Amino acid sequence: MPYALFCNDSQISKAYPDEADVWQLAQRSGLVVDVSADEERHGPRRVLDNDYEIRACRAAHGEDPAQNKADAERASRIELQLGS
């Protein structure tokens, strides 16, 4: 089942093959924050900024989550090359 980024119950990203892909997208978009350690964990943990969540979803008609992932990776590599 594909996953996507949601805000206030609205899907705001394309569908991606798995949850880890959406975490990477959220990280690149500045939506991931570190929170202080709690008593159950040892060290800070990463969470999504307010009102954002990653959920399983259905891909839109004709949408290919694997192609979305490949496109995002290609765009990320281009950004790195331009930033060098």
Briefly, what is this?
With 84 residues, the chain is an alpha+beta fold. 35% of the residues lie in helices and 24% in strands.
The largest pleated sheet is described as:
3 strands, antiparallel
Proportion of beta-strand residues: 15-25%
How many structural domains? 1
- What is the straight-line distance between the termini? 36 Å
Structural class, by secondary structure, is alpha+beta
Helix content: 25-40%
Radius of gyration from the CA trace?
Answer: 14 Å
Number of separate strands: 5
Low-pLDDT regions: none
What does the model show?
This protein has 84 residues and is an alpha+beta fold. The protein is 35% helix and 24% strand. The protein is built from two helices and five strands. The strands form two sheets. Strands 2-1-5 form a three-stranded antiparallel sheet, covered by helices on one side. A two-stranded antiparallel ribbon has the order 3-4. A hairpin with a 2-residue loop joins strand 1 (3-7) and strand 2.
List the helices and strands and how they pair.
Layout: E1 3-7, E2 10-11, H1 19-28, E3 32-35, E4 45-48, E5 52-56, H2 65-83
Antiparallel strand pairs: 1-2, 1-5, 3-4
